[in-house]
């Protein structure tokens, strides 16, 4: 492979990546929901807890799939057969991937719960700050009565 064709291919990949990124950003319209905030946006610890539990259920599903996957490997290790060796290598690759995915899910659970607690605590602290400010800087009564 010549250097020129590699450089051209690399430039094309970079251009394609930039174009895809711009397309994703352009399609994320501000009025399309998600992201941003509104007056009715509230932190909900129960939602974070449910998400954490759902991620935990993913771990259970992954472990079940791994058990079935492993059971299917019994008897598949035939020595001297290239397809068996390739299949064994593929199995090890997927096993490593699923172990990592399960670990990531487990690692996410605690931070998700903490995120919910932190957001609720932050909401409470901000509410208290605004209440103190409103108590300190009360509006003067209107001239001529209410």
Mean pLDDT: 77
Helix content: over 70%
Number of strands: 0
Kindly report how far apart the N and C termini lie. Answer: 84 Å
Q: Order of SSEs, N→C?
A: HHH
Name its key features.
single chain, 146 residues, mainly alpha, 0% strand, elongated
In short:
The protein is mostly helical and 146 residues long. It has helices spanning 3-27, 45-71, 82-136. Residues 22-45 are annotated as: Disordered.
Please provide a written account of the structure.
About 9% of the residues have low confidence. The longest helix has 55 residues. The chain is mostly helical and 146 residues long. The protein has a domain of 68 residues. The termini are far apart. It contains 3 helices and no strands. The relative contact order is 0.09. Helix 2 packs antiparallel against helix 3.
Q: How is the secondary structure organized here?
A:
Layout: H1 3-27, H2 45-71, H3 82-136
Region (Disordered): 22-45
